[in-house]
Specification:
This protein is of the alpha+beta class. The chain has three helices and five strands. A hairpin with a 5-residue loop joins strand 4 and strand 5.
C-alpha cells in the first residue's frame, strides 16, 4: 500500500493467488475484539459447546474475528470507492488463541454487470501446524476503476 499504485480492475486476473498472509491471534487481540462485539459461545448442531480438545476452558475464537480484511489489504492496494457487496463464510474448524494461521487470497472471478465492475475474492484460512482448513470466505466487491 502506501507508495504502491492502486490495484485496478484490469490488474486482477481470474485464478490469481497472492502471497500468504500469516497471523497469530493473541489473547490481547481477542480481548479487544470482545470489548467491541458480544458473540455467544459457539455450539455444534447437537447443542454441545465447541472447546479445545482436552481443555474445556479454552473457547474458540469468533469466526468474525478471523474474518479480517488485513490479508486482502496486504495483497491489494484497493482504490477508494471499493464497496463490499456480499459475503459468504464456510466454517470448517475452530481456531484458538496462539495458533499460527495462514490466509491465502485469490481472485475467483471478475465481471461487468450494468456498467459496474465486480470482483469475487476467496480467502482460505488454514491452521499452519496441521494444515487444517479453518474457514473459507467469498467476498463480492464492486471495483470503481
Amino acid at each position: 500500500m502506501g507508495s504502491n499504485p492502486e490495484t485496478l480492475f484490469a490488474d486482477l486476473q481470474e485464478g490469481q493467488t497472492f502471497s500468504p498472509y500469516c497471523f497469530t491471534p493473541s489473547a490481547d487481540d481477542e480481548a479487544i475484539y470482545n470489548q467491541c462485539v458480544r458473540i455467544p459461545s459457539l455450539t455444534r448442531a447437537d447443542g454441545t459447546a465447541v472447546v479445545a480438545e482436552g481443555d474445556a476452558e479454552r473457547a474458540p475464537l469468533s469466526p468474525f474475528m478471523l474474518n479480517t480484511f488485513k490479508a486482502m489489504r496486504a495483497a491489494i492496494n484497493m482504490p477508494n470507492g471499493v464497496l463490499h457487496a456480499r459475503e459468504q463464510i464456510v466454517l470448517q474448524a475452530p481456531a484458538f488463541v496462539g495458533e499460527a494461521l495462514e490466509a491465502v487470497l485469490s481472485v475467483k472471478s471478475k465481471y461487468l454487470k450494468n456498467d459496474k465492475r465486480f470482483v469475487i475474492l476467496e480467502l482460505a484460512i488454514t491452521r499452519v501446524a496441521d494444515r487444517q482448513p479453518i474457514m473459507n470466505i467469498e467476498r463480492r466487491l464492486t471495483w470503481p476503476r
